[in-house]
Amino acid sequence: MKKLNKNFWVGIIAALAFYGVVQVLLTTGIFTDVTRSMLLLIGVNIMLAVSLNLITGITGQFSIGHAGFMSVGAYTSAILTLDYNVPFVPAIIAGGLLAAVFGVLIGMPTLRLNGDYLAIATLGFGEIIRIIMLNTEYVGGASGLSGIPAKTTWTMLFLFTLITVVVINNFIGSTHGRACIAIRENEIAAEAMGINTTRYKIIAFTIGALFAGMAGGLSAHTFYVITPGSFNFLKSFEIIVMVVLGGLGSTAGSIVGAVFVTLLYTYLREFPEWRMIIYSIVLILMMIFRPSGLLGKTKFSLGKFGKKEAKANDAISENSAP
Amino acid sequence: MKKIGAIILSTVLTAILASGCGNNNTEKSGNSASGGNTGGGTIKIGADLELTGGQASFGDSASKGAKLAVQQINDAGGILGKKLELVVSDNASKSEEATQVAQKLITTDKVVTIIGASTSTNTLGIVPVATEKEIPLVSVGATNPKVTVDERTSKVNDWVFRAAFIDPFQGQVMANFALDSLKAKTAVIYTDTSSDYSKGLQKFFEETFKSKGGEVLSQESYQQKDSDFKAVLTRIKAANPDVIYLPGYYEEVGKILKQAREMGITAPFLGGDGWDSPQLAEIAGADALNDTYMSNHYSPEDTAAEVTSFVDAYKAANGGAVPDGMAALGYDALKLVADAITRAGEADPAKIKDALAATKDLQLATGKITLNETHDPVKAAVVLKFVAGKQTFETKVNP
């Protein structure tokens, strides 16, 4: 128990130190606006990847509807700040909460499905949200909402990202998290052990949706414009790529994956004709030579830099794999 | 666990494959047109365009047009004794990337003006950046009124201008053309309700058509990706209008025209610049396109001197390719900026902005341009008629 606490605080302090350094660099102007918006994008992507990892990596439910939750949060918070002058933080939280409500509503009927069937159902959900937005005049129809105030600051984004990572990481380490992992490893066995699988799946889905919604709101208040088209299923795939690339089932992996994909994508902008080719080749090579992702199943612990635990975990998963 | 991994991997790869398909039109286009940046000797202009993604063909044409303009200006000795340098960056047809690209162009490349993007949505991602950093923005292809006029405050965006005419104007042009040239008295309007562009054209066509004594018999609608239109077309056939206004994009328009002609609807169809694609003739077939008309920014067959000289220069620079509307607009956007810098007397963003706002009677490839008080160009539109599946120049309509 003591060790866990120590790890936790080391992580928090390291994160705060990182925040401080970036904040100084931003205020002194060493980091330009370009770097700043890249950092914001990385933060948003970390929130998305970590929250999807809870659903797909930890609970083992393959969801392609993450962009749908993101768009619910983005639209809700944007409408609140634009039309109702709601302050920034409550608007973001409201966006997240509404996305969570959708998470429950979608989760109830669909989470009884599994594997490929669930994937199709969540894909359908994401598309339904998009089509509704597309045909609702109030939210701008096809051209979406524009002129959203850019209220997301580095500090705000950092706080939200930190909260996301801490909450989800602690959830994974809790009884509930272990129940979710049990569902991933073998649903029938988990049920036989008395775990209410549907309930835990819905919990994971809802928490994932909550943070995805917040990420959507933060992203809307960074990039001024949201359109239904920016939340299509390709966006969901982008998030899945981050999670798989980083290592399915590892929070630290999701963070690394999100940072890696965002940086890769940003720096390839200079070579438009090669962008998608290099991006795809990197993904293919990654999956051939490191199918478990950049970090495999490494747990999130800065205290020991995740070495020992990673090995132990790999051993477990290798043994359990058929 | 293994199975999930396999499913995810295969789905992701399929998705990448699918998204990669949109990029095969991308031309080689290094991020600097004139290469050497000698610092004080050049004036840098940024281009925030769609070189990959869904609208890659628009951005590609626009960047070729803009590069041609830069080359012509530099060959003629540059502006104010300095050469122009065009910094082209890819926004991947996404508005959030357009925002980041604009930030990069302003902060890293230190451009004095930005041109782009080629769609309204992507331009809206640049507008707040340009306003905040006080750098003039000339949109190449944005046609939505809210790009230059804030829809919530109804105030004109000081730093934002555009080279394309706005949606309402196209609707008016076609309504006037139907009434005056085709002598139509009745019309049916068939709108794509999933696109703001289509709805904008529909609204202004209807207003103008009614106010000048025409009668709109009925309003019909479809959605993007629809493929069977026979039910609605049966109703339209029964209404027997003089003209049918169909302001949509080429993909559905092509199918509608094909099915309408098969069902024996002979009335002329009218549309806007969304029809402008070689694929329209492939989808509809040349016969179905007989007796159809579209409004557009310019026609390569226009015999006016400024158009022929542009078309010839573009063909020479791009291996004989005929410039489409977006290429002409890219060329015009850059010429607008160049003219403003010349009149401003120095490459200072604030002065360029004031000079842009005062643009008057500037002769460009798409006509003589005057920017009005909302920073929208007042210029002629062309009406094209399809003959044997090819666009032919019908008439030019002045505002």
Automatic annotation (TrEMBL), chain A:
GO terms for molecular function: branched-chain amino acid transmembrane transporter activity. It is a multi-pass membrane protein. Keywords: Cell membrane, Membrane, Transmembrane, Transmembrane helix. The keyword Glycosyltransferase does not apply. The chain crosses the membrane at residues 7-31, 37-55, 88-108, 115-133, 153-172, 202-227, 239-265, 277-295. One of its GO terms (cellular component) is plasma membrane. Its main location: membrane. InterPro entries: ABC_transp_permease, LivM-like. CDD domains: TM_PBP1_LivM_like. It is found in: Cell membrane. Pfam families: BPD_transp_2 (PF02653). This is ABC transporter. It comes from Paenibacillus jilunlii.
Automatic annotation (TrEMBL), chain B:
It comes from the Bacteria. Keywords: Amino-acid transport, Signal, Transport. The keyword Signal applies. Pfam families: Peripla_BP_6. One of its GO terms (biological process) is amino acid transport. Gene3D superfamilies: 3.40.50.2300. Residues 42-387 form the Leucine-binding protein domain. Belongs to the leucine-binding protein family. This is Amino acid/amide ABC transporter substrate-binding protein, HAAT family.
